[in-house]
Design a protein that fits this description.
This protein is an alpha+beta fold. It is built from 3 helices and 6 strands, in the order ββββαββαα. The model has no long low-confidence stretch (mean pLDDT 86). It binds adenosine-5'-triphosphate (ATP) and magnesium ion.
Length: 129
């Protein structure tokens, strides 16, 4: 099995009761460990797919055929929020398109201001006690 294996991913953004955006539709993805993948074309649902594969967002449930999302052999579609957070904190890493930093702070100060230090940063030189 590939490192990331997804089948039949759908993502519907519900803007209101009658207004929905259907992003992903019947998407299958397979990425081997160590494989480098690029996704190109403007507005082809790249971010949506990456957010789902990165466990930031969830795909639609109750699809037919049933969707599945496996990462490193783990059925991540069935994980709790807490378990998803733990996976994001350790084996995963993101470089965001927009950095979501706090304006008056440097990148390091922003990270230090977080209540829970992200994995690995606790050993950074110069960290305040
Ligand atoms: N939070 C959201 N709420 C509603 N619609 C959204 C949301 N995020 C994305 N969309 C819509 O989903 C579709 C796919 O957007 P997405 O950002 O995944 O595409 P993209 O390929 O990353 O685009 P870009 O090339 O601009 O980076 C678009 O129609 C977009 O407007
Ligand atoms: Mg994008």
């Amino acid at each position: 099995m590939a490192f990331l294996e997804a089948q039949n991913l759908h993502k519907t953004y519900r803007l209101s009761r009658h207004n929905v955006v259907r992003a992903l539709c019947e998407v299958d993805v397979s990425v081997e460990a160590g494989e480098m993948v690029g996704i190109y074309r403007t507005a082809c649902d790249k971010s949506t797919l990456i957010h789902i594969g990165g466990l930031l967002h969830s795909p639609d449930k109750n699809t037919y055929p049933p969707m599945s999302l496996m990462i490193d052999g783990i059925d991540v579609a069935g994980l709790s929020d807490r378990a998803r957070t733990q996976m994001r904190a350790k084996p995963m890493g993101f470089v965001f398109q927009g950095f979501n930093m706090l304006f008056a702070m440097t990148a390091l100060e922003t990270l230090r201001s977080l209540p829970n230090m992200p994995a690995g940063l606790g050993t950074m030189p110069g960290r305040r006690p």
